[in-house]
């Protein structure tokens, strides 16, 4: 596959992100910018989850806990070592990756539903550990993050500056995800996803690669956690328990985990639908449930893949043939 | 036709020119205040009381002609925002109220975590922020509330936890003992295991011990528990004189019937359950049950002002709930703030803070509401007890002067 061909799958994401980076020029409300930042932070974690779920076929229901590892790492580094935002990003990514490895090694000895349950249990366990961590983790009350965020001496604590920072990290995540998908490693992961036994028979170390995918997704989650901690300036265990994990899984399933636009679409939809339709949490959950069932039944590769397929059917001569995006064709 | 359009345009321009200063005047003579609370989602029970309480106070102030600050009279405009029990929404709502709407003050939220994150937005913007979270004691210190400190504009509208726990423990034991008929010596706490539960129970434990209680165990249950039997069985094995259910009123109402069926103790205490709910739900028990309200009860009260307040509160459309009284942690402080603005003669936040710190306000909860040096109030808490026959007795219990020694 020529590089230019695979780059086509990244191009729409980059164009969309450039457009999103221009949003502050339209003077949006601060409420909108704030929600967009929250959505962007989720999207970064979703790119990690898409590597795990979309490419490897492993669903984690404890991913918010890895985001929490990143957030708490950032808060503790700032408090105890005076380490600021920029250095926290790689350190929290590494810490979340280490924790992902520690969970992945025992958890990935099982597969399918059992793995989902184990990751869910990990999420619950982390909340309990943080809640009972005394002054070190701030117990149930959590921790404050006091360090300012600056770039070349310019404060990026201003909401729009922070928004642009998050867009930048979303772009980095999308590029990293694209690079993984189009690498030999990505092809190996897809081989495992499609047929584990066949992949093993070809000499692929399935267990090691699955743990590797979990570790990679942990890095994304860790970075997302740092951005969250510095955005909210106060974190607590309840933000990283089971419900946020379920929401992350929901977002990636609705948007679609196999296409680069999927996590972006899922994150934005779930963040803004209640706002646009003025839904309360109960109505939102009903809507998400209906969307999830509809996606599973009608658009098994997610909303974006469904829209692309629909587009081809309506306007493209290729409609007669089943169409797959570049990365999918490449993966098979 | 052309002349008709022309005349119409002239009239419209004239009316616009006349109306614009009036509209501008209206906007200038209005003080915006915001409420961020869970009007939907998991914390709706306490959350809906905030806009209801603040809304009632705003209506009363406006109906009385507004607030006279210096030479000008201002009306209040209330901007309510539902945080959907979601921290991202709470933050977005706060950003909107502070930066877009330019509110002078914010009330809420009822959730400790949300309030702390919201304060990171309100405080740098010099927006006065009132929240009824006793857990704010963790951040309200002499240095943080000092001029230029990071929480200079943040006020805690609920007493410090040692005070509320002290009032409650003393009141519960005082009311239950004559009903049980023998001295109460041993207490067991059953507590929701979340941020608030952990924080509150540590103080209540100290308060019970300072009242001479032996407390062999605190039993934590996960939030959203519906089957309490494992926790109740454990409590029963400790042979307590009183089982104290702390702190979620909704969970407590689920746990109590199970406790009565298992015969866990000769008496119970339900934190945050109003006698009004006890009566409305037709609850009964064959043993004495104490209840406490945050801070004054609506179903039965010894506070002379409570009836008038709650009549107006419910007449305004607020539902009768387990935690309706939480509204009083906000209602009084809208009036208090209005008085501070009048006293300061200015809307300047620094002058208002100074006024708030020196004022003694006559509210519903107390005739002498005042903030201490670390921006926290002190007042009594109401405790009631239902006798097995159904009679309910209530008493306002004053807080202890000092925190018990650990």
From TrEMBL, chain B:
Q: Which InterPro entries match?
A: BCAA_transport (IPR051010), Leu-bd (IPR028081), Leu_Ile_Val-bd (IPR000709), Peripla_BP_I (IPR028082)
Q: Does the keyword Membrane apply?
A: no
Q: Does the keyword Signal apply?
A: yes
UniProt-listed Pfam families: Peripla_BP_6
Q: Which residues, if any, are the signal sequence?
A: 1-24
Q: Which GO terms describe its biological process?
A: amino acid transport
Superkingdom in the source lineage: Bacteria
Q: Which Gene3D superfamilies match?
A: 3.40.50.2300
Q: Which UniProt keywords apply?
A: Amino-acid transport, Signal, Transport
Which intervals hold domain Leucine-binding protein? 30-382
Check the record and name the PANTHER family matching this protein: LEUCINE-SPECIFIC-BINDING PROTEIN, PERIPLASMIC BINDING PROTEIN OF ABC TRANSPORTER FOR NATURAL AMINO ACIDS
Instruction: Write out the similarity annotation.
Output: Belongs to the leucine-binding protein family.
Protein name, entry field? ABC-type branched-subunit amino acid transport system substrate-binding protein
Q: Which organism is it from?
A: Phyllobacterium trifolii
Q: What is the lineage of its organism?
A: Bacteria, Pseudomonadati, Pseudomonadota, Alphaproteobacteria, Hyphomicrobiales
